[in-house]
Amino acid sequence: MMPRTQPLAAYPGDPAPHGGMRERRYYRAYGLTIASDVALPELESAEPAAADILIAIGMIDMPKPSPETATIFRFEPDRQYLAWHAVGAFLISDFSRIDIEPAPGVNDALLAFPLLGPVMALLLHRRGLLVLHASAIAVAGRGAIFMGDKGAGKSTTASALIRAGHDLLTDDVVALDLAKPDAPMIVAGFPQIKLAADAAAAISLGQAEVRPQVHPQIEKMQHRLHGAFSGDTVPATRIYVLERGQRAGITALPGIAALPAIIKFSYVTRFGRAALSGDFAALHFRQCSAIANHVGVFRLEVPTGLDRIGEAVDLIDADLAAGDLAGKKLAANRRPR
């Protein structure tokens, strides 16, 4: 389901706050052309064209959070409003436009942090994609998704797989296209992964540019990849739910546990029931069920200690290879004789 499929017309630059003009830049991410008044070097540049999404700077006639309330989230059928006192206000409308009113003194780098995280996740959700709070890697044409609680090691495990020669699909926001529910596809995001300092030191990503720290309270550093990124849509083959353990291990989750795990780590559930208004609640449940029924969901135990991350990488490689072999045998057995 895609509520809006037609791209927007090309827009001229809008006036920037305090006079002057902002340069409108064009990018590609999640299979979409994005026209943006906010500089987003995290994304891949694109030539000016009719845009699927417009990101515009301007005034938003909505209540702003106070220092005490810190945030305001409002969800309506035709628009969604997210505001952080320390960053700014974001209004999503028509499945295709994000208006931004920055807080005083906030630069584009800090605006991009929620814009490319929860704001983009909510817009993709409203466009009919299933969005997981996870990381995803392409391994020989197969997509592996890593979900888990904060600190479980999603980005760390993904980075170790990149170092092992595989390609990033997306970090933090994993969008799945279920146009064919029995064949879910991971839509490539953009070539950046966020890592804590200790993980970055232990897992050196050679073709990566470490961008300046966005804010003193945001510990993870942004690593902009130059290479090791797959811009292709890839079949979702495995979902791994990460847990810390004494040794590396992979265990299949039964269906009764797989569906709750997918619902738990879907991005929209972070906003509570209010974000699943109207038909979107039923659609979201059907999408989560389709993933649970058609993608293998496994518990992945990752050994404590960054020096042992290679054990998990070896196990993931072996599991994906075994799954690919089993899939080929099943397809061969189904062919008419």
Automatic annotation (TrEMBL):
Position of the signal peptide: none
A GO BP entry: regulation of carbohydrate metabolic process
Keyword Kinase part of the UniProt annotation: yes
Gene3D superfamilies tied to this protein: P-loop containing nucleotide triphosphate hydrolases
Gene Ontology MF terms: ATP binding; phosphorelay sensor kinase activity
InterPro entries: Hpr_kin/Pase_C, P-loop_NTPase
SUPFAM superfamilies the record matches: PEP carboxykinase-like (SSF53795)
Keywords: Kinase, Transferase
Keyword Transferase attached: yes
Sequence ranges assigned to domain HPr kinase/phosphorylase C-terminal in this UniProt record: 132-179
Protein name: Serine kinase
Source organism per UniProt: Mesorhizobium huakuii
